[in-house]
Design a protein that fits this description.
Layout lengths: L8 E2 H5 L4 H5 L19 H9 L2 H14 L3 H15 L5 H18 L2 E4 L1 H11 L5 E6 L5 H12 L6 E5 H4 L4 H7 L2 E4 L7 H17 L4 E2 L18 H11 L6 E10 L5 H9 L8 H6 L12 E6 L3 E2 L6 H9 L7 H17 L2 E2 L1 H15 L5 E2 H18 L3 E2 L8 H4 L4 H12 L4 E3 L4 E4 L19 H17 L3 H11 L7 H14 L12 H17 L3 E3 L5 E3 L2 H26 L9 H16 L14 H13 L3 E3 L5 E3 L1 H16 L21 H4 L1
Parallel strand pairs: 2-8, 3-6, 3-7, 4-5, 4-6, 10-12
Antiparallel strand pairs: 1-2, 7-8, 7-9, 11-14, 13-14, 15-16, 17-18
Helix pairs in contact: 3-11, 4-5, 4-11, 5-11, 11-12, 13-21, 17-18, 17-21, 17-25, 22-25, 25-26, 25-27, 25-28, 26-27
Subcellular location: Endomembrane system
Membrane topology: Peripheral membrane protein
GO molecular function: glycerol-3-phosphate O-acyltransferase activity; glycerone-phosphate O-acyltransferase activity
């Protein structure tokens, strides 16, 4: 691929100058990316018929009919119902009218939609030549993700893809069918234990891969990341797509990773409550209309950034031996290792192309200030100095993309006396419901807890109002801190291993933490010892090159930059505290209740809540109340053989290994900063106070 112009443009800039109705009604011939001869392209009806006539589907139908003692036609009818429920029904006129509505909403709630459009033009050139199937693989940070991507493609006269969607949207009156007309096809969330549905799904997706002239779109993370961190990839849907290449139904499949970043996700407060165990509201048309209250505040959600990466060729991950296996045996299966390698290639590309917003850095700095300078106010002047410093660190040392400007915006919007100051002030204005400048020009956290505690089906421990008052805004803040892990996960783990007696002991700790936190930070799993050593050496060399650490002649590592070391350690400490909590919970389980996941995470939350108010406790951070972290860690502890789980879902600890790990975790936490959020509980600014605009 030729060198790419990495400049961003604002997609909404032109829309603010035109008549929306004229734009959506323009003459269009959307580019279909999968170049096929007309006789090979399937209609919706042909796609359904192809899935029904699939040999494996027919085999399951006949077996199911025999098992139930019913005619084959009965099972065929059930299969048809599933496929009609599943299949998309693209309709350009519907897309046009939805584009009109979406344009007006986006222009109201967003300041800009920034993307690197030059890569889109390169992709369009490729698509008009290459006869391969394309798959859009965006990150999943908000329900707005698939709307935004479709809107971008529509804006550049590119056909909307076949979009994998959950049944939650299908059940929404009117909306479900409207989305189907934009290309959505609906799949159930879990069907691993249903071979009938599984085979129908496999056949339908296989037909799309080989016979649809439109691309496919799916979220490799499987679900929205409430934490706004990259989630570990899911392999099922990806494997189904790759099967078409494995069986030579297409010459190649090109995956297009797209990283989407939000100044302010629409669901930010819902995410904070969900991480604490409050269930999300069910998707409904009524709820959709209720959510239109976001239109009250013009530009209230800031900017959105889409960083489109060059495509990843799946063919490069299939060696000749694997291809021969498929040719020699129709029953051969795609090796799972191929799927995993492609999955982590996509996820790693997401991380490398993550756009950091100014508020990501502001939140990181505020979190650090609470821990490193407890009881000291954080002045706006100090924040501005720190912001310039940390922004330079990210851009120079970690090659991060921070708040890229739009090349097509007017000069008056881009040229400012102090760019960094402008970024900070605009970001604080967007987030004045979370962080605000008080009358003394100090940055203060605001109370975001709405008092919604008497809800049914709370997944975790019933936390007190006092705890929720501090936990909700802090977790809300950490949602904005977490995207920096795209660049800092391995350096942060390594930072906890510096200053140990020897490089060998540092490597041992790194291997332990890196292995257990693999899923939490979406790092490749099942690495060999030599691969871990190589990763450690590369991480250390990178940190030494930047003069962050130095290595003595005695092979001991030491810190050169105390300030950055503190930020890295305090960034990852809440996760270390969660790991320590869950290990101690498993080790000390009294078995008066079943040691199942639900009970374990409740007990973990209870222990963390108690620790937050104990001055001598090692757990200081409310983010250690997050249920998602415990769910991920439980799985990792089993994978790493620190714990076992039986057929009934009961957990048991591998006591000797786990006790050794807990001792090391205690040592880590004992060396961490002593500041903690509970100390600022009394100084939280009530949410109704909004003096920021006056200050600015």
């Amino acid at each position: 691929m030729k060198p790419v112009d990495e400049r961003f443009v604002d997609l909404l800039e032109e829309r603010r100058k035109d008549y929306d109705i004229v734009w959506v009604s323009r003459s269009m011939k959307p580019l279909t990316p999968h170049r096929l001869s007309p006789d090979v392209i399937y209609t919706r009806k042909q796609t359904i018929e192809a899935a029904l006539s699939d040999n494996r589907v027919m085999g399951v139908i006949q077996a199911l009919a025999a098992a139930r003692g019913v005619p084959v036609s009965t099972i065929v009818a059930e299969a048809q119902d599933i496929l009609h429920e599943m299949a998309s029904k693209a309709h350009l006129p519907t897309v046009r009218w939805l584009a009109l509505l979406i344009t007006k909403v986006l222009k109201r709630i967003l300041m800009s939609i920034r993307l690197n459009k030059s890569l889109l033009y390169i992709l369009k050139d490729q698509m008009s030549i290459l006869q391969v199937q394309y798959v859009y693989a965006p990150t999943h940070r908000s329900y707005l993700d698939f709307i935004l991507l479709s809107y971008v493609l529509f804006s550049y006269d590119m056909a909307l893809p076949n979009i994998a969607s959950g049944m939650d949207f299908y059940r929404m009156k009117i909306v479900g069918e409207l989305l189907r007309h934009t290309g959505a096809f609906y799949i159930r969330r879990s069907f691993a234990s249903d071979p009938f549905y599984k085979e129908i799904f496999r056949a339908y997706v296989g037909s799309l891969v080989a016979h649809s002239d439109r691309a496919i779109e799916f979220f490799i993370e499987g679900t929205r990341s409430r934490s706004q961190k990259t989630l570990a990839p899911k392999f099922g849907f990806l494997s189904t797509i790759l099967d078409g290449l494995f069986r030579s139904n297409v010459p190649d499949i090109q995956f297009i990773p797209i990283s989407i970043s939000y100044d302010k996700p629409l669901e930010e407060l819902l995410f904070a409550y969900e991480l604490l165990g409050v269930p999300k509201p069910a998707e409904s048309t009524t709820g959709l209309f209720r959510s239109l209250s976001i239109l009250k505040e013009p530009f209230g959600h800031g900017n959105v950034y889409l960083k489109i990466a060059p495509p990843i060729s799946a063919r490069e991950y299939l060696d000749m031996t694997t291809r021969k296996a498929s040719a020699l045996s129709p029953n051969a299966k795609l090796p799972s290792q191929v799927t995993k390698r492609v999955a982590y290639a996509i996820v790693d590309c997401h991380k490398q192309n993550t756009v950091l917003t100014p508020f990501n850095l502001i939140s990181l700095l505020y979190n650090e200030r609470i821990h490193s300078h407890p009881r000291e106010p954080y002045s706006l002047d100090d924040l501005l100095l720190d912001y310039s410093w940390i922004k330079n660190i990210f851009m120079q040392r970690f090659q991060a993309i921070v708040n890229p400007t739009a090349a097509n915006t007017s000069i008056t919007d881009n040229v400012v006396d102090d760019t960094n100051k402008q970024e900070v002030l605009e970001s604080l204005k967007t987030h004045n419901n979370l962080l605000e400048i008080d009358f003394e020009q100090n940055v203060k956290l605001k109370n975001r807890h709405t008092g919604v505690t008497q809800l049914k089906n709370i997944k975790g421990y019933p936390l007190s109002e006092k705890t929720l008052k501090i936990a909700v805004p802090v977790i809300n803040l950490m949602i904005y801190v977490n995207p920096v892990f795209a660049y800092l996960s391995k350096p942060a783990i390594a930072a906890l291993c510096i200053n140990l007696p020897s490089k060998e002991s540092a490597l041992k700790r790194y291997s332990m933490l890196r292995t257990v936190f693999s899923n939490e930070f979406a790092l490749p799993t099942n690495m060999s010892e030599s691969e871990l050593v190589q990763e450690w050496e590369e991480t250390i060399q990178s940190m030494a090159k930047d003069k962050f650490i130095q290595q003595s002649s005695e092979n001991q590592l030491s810190i050169n930059n105390d300030r950055l070391h503190s930020i890295l350690c305090n960034l990852i400490t809440p996760f270390v505290a969660s790991l320590q909590t869950i290990c101690k919970t498993l080790l000390q389980w009294d078995y008066s209740t079943h040691c199942i996941e639900k009970n374990v995470i409740k007990e973990c939350q209870k222990r963390v809540e108690e620790s937050l108010y104990e001055e001598t406790a090692l757990i200081k951070h409310p983010y250690s109340l997050s249920l998602d972290t415990y769910t991920t860690l439980l799985s990792s502890l089993v994978t790493c053989e620190y714990a076992t789980i039986d057929k009934c879902g009961l957990y048991n600890s591998n006591r000797s290994n786990m006790e050794e790990m807990v001792d090391d975790l205690d040592n880590i936490l004992n060396q961490c900063s002593k500041g903690f959020y509970v100390e600022i509980l009394s100084s939280l600014i009530p949410e109704e106070m909004t003096n920021l605009r006056a200050k600015l």
